[in-house]
Specification:
Length: 364
Amino acid sequence: MNCDVTVELGDRSYPIHIGSGNLDTLGESCKAAGLKGKCLIVTDETVAPLYSDRVFQSLEKAGFKPALEILPAGEPTKCQAQLFNLYSKAAAHGLDRKCFMVALGGGVIGDLTGYAAASWLRGIQFVQVPTTLLSMVDSSVGGKTGINIPAGKNLVGAFHQPELVMIDLDTLKTLPPREFAAGMSEVVKYGILWDAELFQTLELTASGLADFSCGTDNLGKIIARCCEIKAEVVRQDEREGGLRGILNFGHTAAHAIENVAGYGEFLHGEAVSIGMVYAAHLSVALKGLSVEESARIEKLLMELALPVGAPKLLWKKIRAAMAVDKKTVGGLTKFVLADRIGHVDFGCEVPEALLEEVWDGISQ
Ligand code: NAD
Ligand code: GLY
């Protein structure tokens, strides 16, 4: 399967190439996108032995002068120290304003490299080569880049759009099942917030998706649909003035869970799964989402091997962590809530007592 989705942003529009074997054509696609000269490929210790040679060679064959930087795998890498390490590597490789960076890996590498590119020499070009399901359907598209600081996740960053996104579906074959499931959580999110038909497709194919037996083509179509939805939302609201907020469905509680449990305890997608169940229950209470639809959401997430019960973490800590969420304005934590599968509203206020009551209700 091979297809392209375009993120339409005027003269900053860019393609998302989706297909099998795309790592080997990365160099040619970079040339077609008008990139030139030297580049810094950033990846992690897990992805490097699997894919960095092919990416390096593809770029070299197309006439680029790549250098490779391999970082530790995992969320702690999305930090200030690694950001400054990338600046040093960019300086050592002589990256000037015409050069670019390549993020080869999951969302951690994509967010960090994107922010390094956004800030190096006040901004150079970069390319996303996502290798996790989560990064294919979400983090590589839309230009949000950044790092974590001790006060919270993603608190420092910039909007900086890539020149292109290169998705090689074959890279998913080496992804551990737990990481794959975590990515499916964001896929389910698109069904809930935008596309009831996608949600239904997921319900019908859940078992084949969970064990990968649905095949690369079917998976590719689902990934392409998620990219289309994200591209459309970003086209309408690049800087999250309003609509883009819907992509945070389930994320208010998710960020709090990750923060309180300690980064790395829950995968981001796992925390999002619990956060979506929390948001669904709030939606039943406040937005008229039917109990049946809320149950369908929970069932689908369970079939995809995702957690749905809130961990026994102290509510007060969770509530405090929710308050530093980026969606908190003037002390009021706002939520994205669904009135039905396929449609959500952003900026919803929730009575304080209900926040705790629903948390208790889904706690294990
Ligand atoms: P990740 O980047 O940590 O990757 C998960 C693990 O999978 C890592 O250990 C990695 O080495 C390994 N891996 C990656 N590709 C592999 C492959 N093909 N085969 C085998 N192993 C592979 O995590 P992630 O889930 O991709 O991304 C999570 C991050 O993305 C979080 O920091 C989150 O905040 C961020 N995020 C950003 C946005 C955005 O819009 N910028 C959106 C959603 C999430
Ligand atoms: N993942 C949320 C966004 O890109 O806006």
